[in-house]
Design goal:
The complex is a heterodimer of chains A (463) and B (182). Chain A contains 17 helices and no strands. With 463 residues, chain A is mainly alpha-helical. The longest helix of chain A has 34 residues. Chain B has 182 residues and is an alpha+beta fold. Chain B is 44% helix and 13% strand. In chain B, strands 2-3-1-4 form a four-stranded antiparallel β-sheet. The chains are: A mainly alpha (463), B alpha+beta (182). Chains A and B meet through α2, α7 and α9 of A and α1, β2, α2, α3 and α4 of B.
Chain lengths: 463, 182
Amino acid sequence: MSNNVHLSTTVLDRPVIGAGHDFETVTETVSQIPLGSRTPLPWVAIFLTALGLFGLLHLALGYLVMTGVGIFGTNQPVGWAFPIINFVWWIGIGHAGTLISAILLLFKQQWRMSISRFAEAMTIFAVACAAIFPVFHTGRPWLAAYWLFPYPNAMGLWPQFKSPLIWDVFAVSTYATVSIVFWYVGLIPDLATMRDRAVSKVKKGIYGIFCLGWRGSARHWHRYEVASLILAGLSTPLVLSVHTVVSFDFAVSVIPGWHTTIFPPYFVAGAIYSGFAMVLTLAIPIRFAYGLESLITMRHIDNMAKIMLATGLIVGYGYTMEAFYAWYSASPHEQFMMWNRMTGQYAWAYWMLISINVVMVQFLWFPQVRNNVKLLFVMSIIVNIGMWLERFVIVVTSLANDFIPSSWAHYTPTRWDYMLYAGTFGLFLTAFLLFLRFVPMIAMFEVRMLLPQSKVKADHHAH
Amino acid sequence: MHTNQPSNALFGVMAEFDSAQDLVDAARKTVAHGFTKMEGYSPVPIEELNDIIHKKRTMLPALVLGGGLTGMATGFALQWWASVIAFPLNVGGRPQASWPTFIVPSYELTILFASLTAAIGMIVLNGLPQPYHPVFNVERFSLATSDKFFLVLESSDPKFEPQAANEFFRSIGAKGVYDVEQ
């Protein structure tokens, strides 16, 4: 026990943010980004691209709604393809934000403070992108409501609660709601700072409305801290449950390759792994473009790379176990599934994901790699490609070559599949760039808590 | 708040400090001096301050527990009622009330209700949204969300007297003392 205490103090003693900061410099560095009038040129360039992709999303969804799901490559026997792959991929990415803001809060990891805000924004936008797929792959989402949501309808029908798909509706909608609530609660004190620092009346008014009249009284803060801790405590089992339930969509079925007990932990680890990759993909350019190197330090980058490594190793263990189960099950269907993954029509995808998620991730053992931001940026993008391929392999290989050879087929996505996927990047980037422009992207009050000005010595004259 | 309201309609007297330590020290001295109606304001949460000034912890955790249990009961009751009474469906011959399959939605609604209770409870108990408060009348108070710490002695305090409060704050090292208009 005493060993643990000693270890944690030495880790916490290392500076989380750069030297020379005080309350004013932290507040100014972060708040001047949304309050200032200067928008970095890359922001404008990426925003225009994002809007273009966002338009593509509207086009794809519009055509889908007018025509029907026949525009997708999804067909028998591959009745589940791009929509579920992209859904799982996006929702997995969201997990890192909740891990940073909730689980690392419970573990008192102070380094989370400068990255929690934008990681959580990433979560919300990723979940929004994810939600598009299950909603729209029904073809007529306005008609799907009655079997997705329990509400009294004129037909007297109720959802089928014995299906993991309905559990998923509950898990994902709860996750989206709680993420937004947690994020907003975290924003309130910082929005008050924005209100107090804004010069223009309009900005003052808007931030003033959203901060609800926060004034930082001792009573306010006390309830606030209690609420934050409770929300973190609730979000922790929630985030673990979300990808668990997503994996139930597969694991509760009887399809070879899906029906395994390793799925829940393996999916959760994969989600966190890809989520941290996305946080790195976003954090590395952001800290550079906005000059935030002293707040998002190399320690953050290094720690995130380490979490990526740790969760990547769990994912690798998952792949090993999948192969082992297939062999140990003595079921010819399971054994064929695994052999087909490795040597069948989609073997290229399987070996690509293995070389990314099992082999490439090993380079993160080296501090030189973890401290090379350019390399890490490229690797973080490759990791997310690898994680997309993982979902592709899980979904498509098990379906394309199922129990009866006469029903085997080759799945090819159509241009609409690609367009919808690209379109969700438009939604994600547009929302994220607007967030960067108008909302303080670093939790100022939390970073202030790291500084000596906020420290209080214990009272020796107890009353 | 029906205590003696002074005629000059002063909400209180505000003292400014530079650090959390200074504010906590000042609050301790103010309490030791016999004042009761005061409030500290800071740009960071200070755990000790609530204990010193209010000596009372929030009821929020109990509310959240209630919210969570309500969510769990709602989730389970909804599924049970929908699957057994409203729309019984034979799924592979399983019992209508197969409770293990009801666990996940019940669990999610537990978390949903508890989280909403935590967030809304915090906001409502804090009396928010409250766009106006007398402390906003002090110009320096805009720094309370950036880098300054404030202690306000309120006029509802039985021992409150503006001049004495002003002198007291100066004697305990306030960096500035301001009248807070009602």
